[in-house]
Design goal:
This protein has 208 residues and is an alpha/beta fold. Helices cover 30% and strands 15% of the residues.
């Protein structure tokens, strides 16, 4: 157990969003100056895979979960699947055979560069993943994040995913509760962020 540092030791908390904290520390919401992604495929989506099976489930169990998700994603057009650089070769082999054979609408992305640097090659509106940091970063660039942490947690419960759900709720981002909700038109931000509150540049906050 680590001791809690006194609130007076902090000048502030810097965040991308207006969040509620349990500390008496000033909150600074920074300006979002990230370039918006130009979307041409209004119903398109890209799935960002993560090697979840290395930590929270078996590879076989994860693939079975993935098949359930991908079967629902034919409603997106187009639909891309991006591997993670840490994905195992056995996992990639199954995806390239079983998934492509059963779901010909899936387009594979083998580029190992971060999605943030190549998203312009996939001008889709929706970004889907269990808890990839890419969802957060692309959310700030105007894309719609669909977090699958809640659905995954129902099958492979872990307190880490409970914590993710709490964090998402703090920024007003909802995730689907059922596979059927994964479809074009899903809106994770039913309650808009309070844009009336002033945002400041990071340089101003840090007095640079």
């Amino acid at each position: 157990i680590y001791p809690i540092m006194d609130d007076s030791l902090f000048s502030g908390i810097i965040s991308d969003f207006w969040v509620v904290t349990k500390r008496e520390i000033k909150l600074f919401a920074i300006e979002n100056k990230m370039d918006k992604v130009i979307v041409s495929d209004k119903k398109g989506a890209i799935f960002l895979n993560e090697p979840i099976y290395l930590y929270y489930s078996s590879e076989e169990g994860y693939i079975d979960f993935l098949i359930q998700i991908i079967a629902q994603c034919e409603v997106f057009a187009p639909f891309h699947f991006k591997f993670h650089p840490s994905d195992s070769e056995s996992f990639k082999k199954v995806i390239k055979t079983r998934i492509l054979d059963d779901f010909p609408f899936v387009s594979l992305c083998n580029d190992e560069n971060p999605i943030e640097s190549i998203i312009e090659s996939f001008p889709v509106k929706y970004v889907i993943s269990i808890l990839s940091v890419g969802l957060h970063n692309l959310m700030l660039r105007g894309l719609v994040p669909i977090y699958l942490n809640k659905i995954f947690n129902k099958q492979f419960h872990n307190i880490s995913f409970d914590a993710v759900e709490v964090n998402l709720k703090e920024i007003g981002c909802e995730s689907p509760s059922t596979i059927q909700e994964i479809r074009p038109g899903f809106n994770p931000f039913k309650k808009k962020q309070d844009d009336l509150k002033s945002r400041e540049s990071i340089r101003k906050i840090l007095r640079l």
